[in-house]
Every structure is written in structure tokens, then in C-alpha cells.
């Protein structure tokens, strides 16, 4: 492409689009002209980008299109409305969409937990072979309980939030490959099951459940949800249905992002419970009540808003107009 000829041929269009996009008011004819020029200049950007002849010109035209698009689309949605929509529509719709995957992961993990706990408790010599007797004594009499109490509440809550966020992120990111997520879930469940078995054998089951469940009810629920969302990515690749695999992965990836953002907020709530409620001087029944109410609030929230959003056709994906990679004009950019 002869760049000089191209610029001379289309410069008037660019200047006119620039002029119209800077005006505070437009007549009907000018608005139509703006839309026409916007579409025309979009093809110019695609041509320049395809030739890779002038990065500066490409950047200038791209910026011109962005400004013009803001005029065509009008004012943006206020941030508070965007946040409210995410909380009441996008996130619960995304969670509702993966509810069966979530339920299956939950049942499998809880079942595995029970089996491993019973195995450690009932297989002769197994408990003794996993840890030395002195280490087991320290664990059941001191280490498990002090884990929740040895650090200041605020610092402990932040540490827990970061750790849980890392676990959930790993479940989501590696879900498409299946095995790493399955291995991570197994290691997590195995670790909890072994500690559970030792605490029960030592006659300290009340301490174990009283410290684990207040925060663990919500925390493990979010971990299972993250794994379910990640594994659904794998299914989108394996069985994309009527969509191409690329479009299926793109759609599930955007929904996964919605779940990741929303899950972070609920992990924060779980971390606050673990940091301030679990190690508190409250009796076990009070801590368990708080943990149960927090989990119940999450489940009611997801069911109430998720079902309503699903009935409106929401899936947790971006709105059609926001999926820039699927829009021909945007793809050219």
C-alpha cells in the first residue's frame, strides 16, 4: 500500500470525523454523517494495521475511533449502576449457570473427605505411619488450635484471603486442563481429612469442628465453586455444542472472569470470619451459628438473584455490545 496516496485520499474523512466527534451538539444529518464516517474510518484502520506501514498513523486513527465511538454510544453507565448490576445480575447468573457442576464437585469432595477420614481412623497402622507420634501430639493439642490464634486478627485475615484467592485462582486457571485442578482439590481434601482423623482419634472433634466450620463452610463452598467454573472451561473445549471451540472458550472465559471477581468478594467475607470469629472467645455454638448464617446468606443470594437473572436470559457473560472480539468493526482494530 502506498501510504502517502492513502493519506491524501482519506485525510478529509479523518479531519471531518475529528471535527464532528469534538462537537457538543449534532444535528440529525451530522449524527448520521458521524456514524458513516466512523464505519468508514474503521476500515481504514484495518487497512493500515494490515499493512503495518505506520504505527503512528494507526494509533492516531484508533484514538479517533475511540473518541467517535463515545459520542455515538452516548454517556457511559454510572459506576454505581455497573457495580449494582454485577452484584445483582452478572455474578449470581454466572454462579447459577454452573450450579450442577458446583454441586457435583461439592458431593465428590465431601464424599472423598469422609472416605479418607474413615480410612485413616480404621486402617491399622495407617495413622501412625503418616506422622510421628510426637508430631501428632503437637498437632492435636496445640498446633491446630494455635494456627488460628497466634497472629493478630487483621493480619491473619489478610493472609488467609491471599492464600484462598491463590487456591481459587489455580482451580479456575488450570481447570481447562482438568488434572491439575483435580490434583489440587485432592490435596486440599486429603490435608483436611487427615487432620480431621487425628483430632477425632484424640477425642478433640469438638475443637476441630468448632474451629473449622465457622469460616470453612463458606470458604470451601467458594473453592468448590471455583473448581466447578474452571472444569466447565474444559467441557467447553471438549463439547462446544453448536458454537466453535473458540467462541465457546471465549464465552466461558468471560463468565469465568465474572465468577472470579465475585468470588473474591465472598472470600474476603470468609477471611474476616476466619480472622475475627474463628479464634474469638465466643462459644462454639455461637461461632458455628455465625458461619452457618454467612453460608446461608450466600446461598440465598445466589438462588434468589441467580434464578431471576437466568429467567431474563442472563448467563454472566458480557453484554453483546461489549464483546469487542466478536464485533466485525472492533475485530478490525
TrEMBL record:
Record keywords, A-Z? Membrane, Transmembrane, Transmembrane helix
Which sequence ranges are marked TM in the entry?
100-121, 156-185, 192-211, 217-238, 259-278, 284-304
The answer to keyword Transmembrane applying to this record is: yes
Stored Pfam families: SpoIIM
Keyword ATP-binding among record annotations = no
* Record-given protein name: Stage II sporulation protein M
Organism name: Candidatus Avipropionibacterium avicola
